[in-house]
Design goal:
By secondary structure, the chain is an alpha+beta fold. It has a single domain, classed as GIY-YIG endonuclease, CATH 3.40.1440. Strands 2-1-3 form a three-stranded antiparallel sheet. A hairpin with a 5-residue loop joins strand 1 and strand 2. The protein is globular and about 30 Å long. The chain starts with 6 loop residues before the first strand and ends in a 27-residue tail after the last helix.
Length: about 110
């Protein structure tokens, strides 16, 4: 079975918009959920990096890790330039992802259809 693997290099931005977090993952939905809900202690939780502003997909984990390493070495101006190229308004590309659902009276959750 030759299944395509997907890996992602991503940049999360803090709510204050001052801090960027660069990471790599094979499960972007889970990782964004963790960022948005502060489920992993460390840099991301400390600086409240909850806005996904850049996402790149790769089929090879080695390539993705090399790209993550490259981006981490860039200065802030170059990182800003990269984000501007694909997301000029710096919108949260994962708006609504990973938001904890609140229970309502009927036992259902908000946002279900």
């Amino acid at each position: 079975m030759n299944r395509e693997h997907r890996c992602y290099v991503y940049i999360m931005q803090s709510v204050s918009r001052r801090v960027l977090y660069i990471g790599v993952t094979s499960n972007i939905e889970k990782r964004v959920f963790e960022h948005k809900n502060h489920l992993v202690e460390g840099f991301s939780a400390k600086y409240n990096t909850t806005r996904l502003v850049l996402l790149e997909r790769y089929s090879d984990i080695r390539t993705a890790i090399a790209r993550e390493t490259q981006l981490k070495k860039w200065n802030r101006a170059k990182k800003n330039w990269l984000i501007d190229q694909s997301n000029p308004h710096w919108q949260d590309l994962a708006e609504g992802w990973g938001e904890k659902q609140e229970e309502t009276k009927g036992g259902s959750t908000q946002g279900e259809r």
